[in-house]
Structures are given as C-alpha cells and as structure tokens.
Amino acid sequence: MIKSELIIRLAQRTSLSKADAKKAVDTIFDEIINALAEGNRVELRNFGILSLRTRNPRIGRNPKTGEKVQVAQKRIPFFKAGKAVKKALNKKNS
Hints:
By secondary structure, this protein is an alpha+beta fold. It contains 3 helices and 5 strands; from the N terminus they run ααβββββα. 1% of the residues are buried.
C-alpha cells in the first residue's frame, strides 16, 4: 500500500473528504517523524513501536573502486511489530 491508497481508504471508512484525510495522514506522519527526530520512541498500541538505533562509525568499502571509506555514525529508525500485527500476519498465512 502506498500513501495515496491509505488516504483513499481513510476517506472511504470515515466521513472525511480526501483533502481532510490527506491532512490527517500527513499530520500523523509528521508527528511520528518529529518525535523520532527528538529521540523519542513512538508506541502505537496494537500496531508496534518505532524507535531509533544508533549505528557506530565504521570503515566501509567503495564497491566500485575497493577504496576504504569512513562511514559516520548515524541514527536509523527501527520498527518492532506489535502483538496484534504479528497475530494478524500469521493468521492470514495459515
């Protein structure tokens, strides 16, 4: 599913117009991104937890030239699925 499909489904399942549904989805995503940028974790009950993990600086390799390259420390988002998501996924596969 892509963002536009999510907006359409939200508009269909609620009394929101597509424009209002787009504002709602954009606001939710913006707030999640802002919380992560501040170093906070985002817990969405029955869905999962978004948090940050830190990758330490390291020496990488340029695959084209084989030259060593210094890779800086960086923060990456990490998602841990909630119990309801795991249950729903395994239920569909059975």
